[in-house]
Write a sequence for this structure.
């Protein structure tokens, strides 16, 4: 396991955007977070990455790398789990929990290669030990950026300014920028939003490739994408985790079907009174 939440809750005034969520993520798992509009998906990501502070509950993270920056008290726990409940976004990013925002982290007038190179430098530059040890760090950042461009299929556009990429290519560049931070967990926010249907496959191929050696969480509205690439799907509705399982389990969940039809009020019972038979805890 790499990430855990316990009783994670966020309230905005009278609205409980995330409601007592117990969740954990395996290393190497590709987990989609879905739910109707306003279900709490973005808030959940914002809590995980430290953009928002929880009202209640806790978040723990187990970075794979040696010499992680530690918890907010500066100490690693003996079992490798660090309490990141109160960590700031730059701290969670340094530890290896990376969020890609919808294109907003791309420098539009800079080349594709430079976009990734700067991200690699920003990450490596934070590690002063490595900086002093390696006098060729600058070349290393280029080499790393070139390897990432190869992985995200943008080598031939390395010198193109980022603003001249197609929307789908920009989404891939965004993943490349996140990869330059050497993440353990990559959180992707609607990676196929705005991508033409013919380019969606290209984006999902890259996500699946990245998921081979990273844990990936994605918020995604395209159900074909979700059902096609997820190992696991977590479903939020009105802040509650109403289902969490493999695509087949979630597809067959009555609670999920009700939530998407708009009839779910979080208190109904199924006709047989037992949602757990479908792997759903409503
Ligand atoms: N900063 C905020 N202040 C007040 N209420 C908020 C704030 N952010 C989110 N909310 C509310 O919390 C609930 C969950 O919102 P959130 O954006 O997390 O849902 P979502 O599942 O990401 O929705 P969508 O799919 O529409 O983007 C909504 O009722 C929303 O109005």
């Amino acid at each position: 396991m790499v990430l855990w939440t316990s009783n994670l809750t966020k309230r905005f005034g009278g609205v409980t955007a995330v409601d007592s969520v117990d969740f954990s993520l395996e290393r190497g798992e590709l987990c989609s977070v879905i739910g109707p509009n306003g279900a709490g998906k973005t808030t959940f990501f914002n809590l995980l990455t430290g953009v928002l502070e929880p009202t209640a509950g806790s978040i723990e993270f187990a970075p794979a790398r040696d010499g992680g920056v530690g918890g907010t008290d500066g100490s690693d726990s003996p079992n490798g789990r660090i309490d990141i409940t109160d960590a700031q976004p730059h701290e969670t990013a340094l530890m290896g929990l990376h969020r890609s925002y919808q294109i907003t982290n791309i420098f539009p007038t800079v080349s594709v290669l430079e976009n990734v190179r700067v991200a690699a430098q920003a990450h490596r530059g934070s590690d002063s030990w490595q900086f002093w040890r390696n006098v060729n760090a600058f070349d290393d950042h280029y080499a790393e950026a070139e390897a990432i461009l190869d992985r995200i299929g943008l080598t031939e556009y390395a010198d193109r300014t980022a603003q001249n990429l197609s929307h789908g290519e920009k989404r891939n560049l965004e993943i490349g920028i996140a990869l330059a931070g050497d993440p353990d967990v990559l959180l992707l926010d609607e990676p196929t939003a705005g991508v033409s249907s013919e380019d969606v496959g290209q984006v999902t191929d890259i996500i699946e490739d990245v998921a081979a050696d990273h844990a990936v969480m994605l918020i995604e509205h395209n159900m074909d994408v979700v059902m096609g690439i997820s190992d696991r799907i977590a479903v939020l509705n009105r802040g509650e985790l109403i289902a969490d399982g493999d695509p087949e389990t979630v597809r067959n969940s009555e609670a999920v079907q009700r939530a998407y039809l708009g009839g779910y009020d979080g208190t109904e019972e199924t006709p047989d009174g037992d949602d757990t038979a479908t792997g759903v805890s409503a």
Notes: The CA atoms of residues 48 and 59 lie 7 Å apart. The longest strand covers residues 15-25.
